[in-house]
Amino acid sequence: MTDARILPVTAELIDYAVARGSWPDDEVAAELRARTRALGDVAGMQIGPDQGQLLTFLARLVGATRAIEVGTFTGYSALCIARGLAPGGRLICCDRSEEWTAIAREAWARAGLADRIELRLGPALETLRALPAEPAFDLAFIDADKGGYLDYWEELVPRVRPGGVLLADNVLWSGRILDADTEDEATRALRAFNDAVAADERVDCVVLPAFDGLTLARRR
Hints:
The structure is a single chain. By secondary structure, the protein is an alpha/beta fold. The chain is 37% helix and 20% strand. It contains eight helices and seven strands, in the order H-H-H-E-H-E-H-E-H-E-H-E-H-E-E. It starts with 10 loop residues before the first helix and ends with a strand.
């Protein structure tokens, strides 16, 4: 049995950590997160600034010039990825909501990142299947409807170059992934996704018990 290592993660501790990273929120990013919080319960779909810093770091680590995101919401994660891209880099964002992505577009423009981001509205699976089949992407981030995760994964893995990185958010689902009494559609879909990724010989992967569970995979 793995020994438990318990670090109580408070809002204050997250603020402390973020302040000591290389990319603390600037005015635009902070205002975007505040505007998203004001939307109410749906704001829970937005990643935090600590996870945002990790996305920026990973984009820089792999020298990403081409990235793709499935599930954009109000655009904070896209902003974080885009700021980590190499010069001339481009990020494709897949989402269905004109309302929420309108907020994203405003923030990207204010941040001076609009020229790095291409938003494609419509069913994400259709968008992915319309992309060229070659492995052209350096980084892919999945943070969308949980029932679609495995389909998105199957479309993205062949399109990520060897050495590129794939990330999937919410894979521990607030701990419900282990609750035998939880059998809703999203939880079942995430269990199937996690098992499939663990068995996928095309990638090396780890699951971070941080944020809401984050899978990081490297394309072999």
